[in-house]
Amino acid sequence: MNHKYQITIVWSQEDECYLAYLPDFADEIMQPVTHGDTYQSALQNGLDVMEELILQFRAENKSLPVVKLVST
Questions:
Q1: Rounded CA gap, 17 and 4, in Å?
Q2: What share of the chain in percent tops pLDDT 90?
Q3: Does 19 or 70 have the greater pLDDT score?
Q4: DSSP readout, 3-65?
Q5: Fewer CB within 10 Å, N or C, the chain?
């Protein structure tokens, strides 16, 4: 899928892994977050969670969140 939603990836010293947040979904459900031992695995896990959330929203006939654009 080619969605325009954000994924924010940060290193967590406490968890000793990368955390991937999906801020565009934060208003719809409790802050969705996943993780990975590498930046790439956190990104892939974030994409997988995003895909599942989109499928869930569609199955429940819920509107997808509005994309929050970042101004540069």
A1: 25
A2: 69
A3: 19
A4: -----EEEEETTTTEEEEE-GGGTTTSS--EEEESSHHHHHHHHHHHHHHHHHHHHHTTPPPP
A5: C
Structure tokens at 63: 């509107």
Rounded to 5°, the CA angle 71-36-12 comes to: 70
Tokens of 67: 């994309």
24: amino acid identity, one letter: D
| Local structure of residue 70 (DSSP, 8 states) | P
In whole angstroms, give the CA distance from residue 1 to residue 12.
28
- For the stretch 13-48, pLDDT in tens is 999 999 999 999 988 777 778 999 999 999 999 999
Contacting residues for 63 by C-beta, under 8 A, at least 6 apart: 57
